[in-house]
Write the structure tokens for this entry.
Amino acid sequence: MRTRAYQHSLSGSSMAAGQPLLEVEALSLAFGGVKALSEVSFTVTSGSIHAVIGPNGAGKSSLLNCVSGLYRPTAGSIVLNFVAGEEGRKRTQRMSAPSDEREAGEKSIERRALTRLKPNRVARLGVARSFQNIELFDQLSVLENIMLGRHIHMKQNLAAAFLWTGPARKQEIAHRVIVEEVIDLLKLQAERSKPVGTLAYGIQKRVELARALAMQPALLLLDEPMAGMNAEEKEDMARYILDVHELAGVTIVLIEHDMNVVMDISQQVTVLDFGKVIADGTPAEVMKNPAVVEAYLGAQK
Amino acid sequence: MAAVETGRYHRTYESQLRLWHTRPQLIRIGVVAVIAIIVPFVFDNYWLSLANTALIASIGAIGLNVLVGYTGQISLGQGGFLAVGAFTSAILTDRMGVPAPLSILMAVATTAVIGVLFGLPALRLKGLYLAIATLASQVVILFIVRRWNFLTEGQGFVDVSRLEVFGFKIERSTFEQQWYIILIIVTVLVAITATNLFRTNIGRAFMAVRDQDIAASAMGVNLTRTKLTAFAVSNAYVGLAGALLAHYSEIISWEKFTMDVSILYLAMIIVGGLGSIAGSIYGALFMTFLPIAVRMFGEVIGGVVPQVQKQLPAVEHAAFGLVIIIFLIFEPRGLNRIWQRIKDFFGFWPFRY
Ligand SMILES: Nc1ncnc2c1ncn2[C@@H]1O[C@H](COP(=O)(O)OP(=O)(O)O)[C@@H](O)[C@H]1O
Ligand SMILES: [Mg+2]
């Protein structure tokens, strides 16, 4: 499957494809009187591209923000499943351990509730994301931005950092190798050392994807990665997302407005309207659902 | 993009991660080193004392820039933290007989810890609100320094004996020269360690918090830990500057650490360049020598127009304010950016781009 010899798997989950990875149960969120989400339930299976669609203000971004710990839901639960002892940074550490040790013992699945965790704790479990309105580190270069994706995997040793030569430098170089693979996969070579603030919108969106992917995530949440793009740029971005999915084997939750894109690249679709799930199924099933046609497609006209 | 970057190809990450890459860069470092070595032989004590003051200010400015320029946490408490470093080291050496190098290290640690305590509001507050909170730390520390009689034994000041390092005592006749050598070494070490910090994940996390704290936390950056680390590192450097100031000036009192000092340091890093180590040094040099330049200029003009002579202190203040305003309007990224543009100009010369 891989087009070239990547040394590192960019997926951070050891869950077998088809198993439930993320389980959202009866999730509700209110801002004062506004009910952004009410009783939202759905399951993301490992290895899939799962689209979340719905008209503006349906609660899609709020849903992602709940998963990544930025919003605290009023009720309900969000559970991430992972192979015990292989979540987030622990996995990369184990992968460098001798393989016979890894194979030993039956893999047991651990369930972890995300609902009470802070964003950085969620990230450490291997949940990466991009934002609807690009949230890059403007004054840093593309490379530095993507290096921040490695943050959860890196040790923080202040004394070593002051000295530089030694462990700090070694660590930078080791992680730089993985970052270069991400840069290569998303074709950001030419932009590597430019400050992200100066880049075109479409490229910034790609840098955000790269930064999230560098986390070697178990789950990748993408909030409208193609918003504000023309058809050609959208196609490019869809291609990159498919590459990430196929070459890197990452499970993706994708928020997208454009029905055509969603139908093309996703295996599962959840439709939100006014904070409620009105349909959930394969793209073909969802397309036929009359409630969807009315709420979503109707709203576009 | 600096001109020196063109035509530079790296074969390894090691080579790319080096601090200098090209011959012009090495030559510049060499020239600066030679100048730094020549200075104590060429200039008299008056100019050397200014240079020493500027070097101490450089260390303090680098410390402040770590917090304000790199981490985006504004601080108006610089004067207070310098006072913590100065009084800690002075009292440890003079009253408890702790050897100076050790007392300076202890002052660094103490200032770092107190910096973290006063940094706690930064976990909740941003921007202007944080500025007010750090202003409170300035006021509280200065209040303690002024009113707690134990510190100055009721005299209002502390005398510090001549610096002695491992049995070597600074000589009266070569006081400024010897201090210059000590300070240049310490400043270089501070600049190198601070530069190193921002080549690693820890420093990158500081800058991520500055640029976009929500995204930083979504990337796994622990905001609490990162901000408090920034306060600790920043104030460790500031404490070092304070301690060196105490030993260098040999007498300290609260007047050296007022709000004006906090503002002066902010001016240094704005003029020099926020988020730049070299800029911190440029700014410290600039702000130390600016009043001298204004005075010399005033004396020249004063020879012709005597009214100016009388107004000299006012002119100094006006020049100070004017410089900050000019930089904020025309080059918010400071002297460091101007220097980069000069390098670019000559690097590309005779082409414009
Ligand atoms: N931080 C917030 N404060 C108040 N209301 C919010 C906030 N975030 C979202 N909302 C509200 O929640 C609803 C859903 O918004 P959002 O999740 O952004 O929708 P979508 O991403 O589907 O367009 C909207 O009515 C919006 O106004
Ligand atoms: Mg949205």
